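[job 4471] stage=fold_predict status=RUNNING
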Amino acid sequence: MPLKAPQHHSRGFVWMPFLLSGFLALGIFIGLRLSKPAASASVGINGQMPASEHNKLEELIRYIEAKYVDEVDRKKLVDEAITSILRQLDPHSSYIPSDDLAQVTEQLEGQFEGIGIEFMMLEDTVVVVSVFPGGPAERAGMGPGDKILAIGDSTIAGKQLSSSDVIRFLRGKEGTKVRAAVVRFPSKTPRWVELTREKIPIESIDAAYLIRDQLAYIRINRFSATTDKEFLSALEKLGGQNKPLDLILDLRHNPGGYLQQASNILSQIFEDRGRLLVYTEGRTVRRSEYLTTGRAFFPIGKVAVLIDEGSASASEILAGAVQDHDRGILIGRRSFGKGLVQEQYLLSDGSALRLTVARYFTPSGRSIQKPYQDNSEYQDDLENRIQSGELISQNRISLSDSTRFFTTNGRIVYGRGGIIPDLFIPLDSLDLNPQFQELKALVPSFAVQAIQGNRTSFPKNSADFKKKFQISESMFQDFSRYAQENTEGALLKNLDRLEDDLRLLIKANIAKDLFGASDYFAIMNTEDPAIAMAIKKLSSPEPLTELSPKPRRK
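[job 4471] inference complete, writing structure tokens
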């Protein structure tokens, strides 16, 4: 999430066409909705536009088309105008142009149509980082480290293409074919492979592994249409069907997604039936309650949920239910504060409207939505948290509403501004260190290069790698030279101070490329204070939940 939203300024009469196009877009939008009775009913449009207002909009359309001094891009003006109109409502009602809808939808639906690879642009070459098991690329013999030199009739090596350019070459309708020229070290002769595109799942679970016997770690990056199935599959692979597992559920930086998916996972955490998890209510939307199903397939013991300022929406629903019912302990920092529910409606040109239709409330009755009347303050919320010191000290947590709510066991909790965790973990100073962040961005590409041609020199399995492999002095010097070539030299003056953290990061990225994402997190988590706190609390015989810190009132 950017610290600041881009600001658009205009002077004099330059803004007049945009204002007129705004009225035009509003008229078109309302007209489209009214022309589709079923869709109109679903968004609560109950009346007809007065004839005089409708005629006025028609007049504006004719004047703009017939009289305006310059040629205008009608589609662009309408798109901009709709976005401007929605900006007057709330920060999460949005317009999705038709060109962007497919990419936005596939992230939530949990699949895309392609050949099944993860790649990286290494200088001017496409390098395969991983292949999806059982996908078209793996069946064609492609693997990590392969370089793609050409796709179809287009040479892509040696050209300054963006990742989105490459994606457009590789993705396509299911069943269509694409040819690619691939070379694998040490060979310099490319071979052509023919691939048939198919549906490739986008996993919403980054990692799932056992930290120790009966203690599982699962990290969810978003709540897509397949998250609940992925969650159950992860528990099964970790042996959850044989014995109860204590669970560390990592929702940090998870922006949310489908509410139903969060509810489904909560039904696995709560074994009883009919327990209230969350409810939604809006001006034209009746109260709708989400309850546990009583069909928990695997026994789950103690629970720790990790959240931070990037945990939003469905993540807050899950965290709020766990906290309100005292089912587990929340660790981290105050969550984002998004408690608005959107529904998506397709428009006639293939674009879509995501409109806020309701608010959601945790079981204790909390609305987590932070105030949004001041749009600039809303957009700058993360920057304000940094400047106030809230991310460093729990005593600096400040909410706009100090109304008290009560958990099942009578603990006091607060709403209107995010979920406050039970145990606070300050932000790592490295996350605000621009030097480290720039060096960190170089590590994935360095790791790919370090592996190329040297795969046989690394331990053959992840257990041996995590236990025995260390970043040698020569490899770290290689990274220093790589950083020297790709950054300003001044950034490397204090490299010694960052060396331990960079070594850990390099090892984790090599593990990811060799064995998978779970191994990346397994290595990074060894130095994560939130994970250490979760392990400590889950291992203690003492009750998990503690009194939450009381925020200051603005």
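[job 4471] summary: The first strand starts at residue 94 and ends at 96.
[job 4471] exit 0
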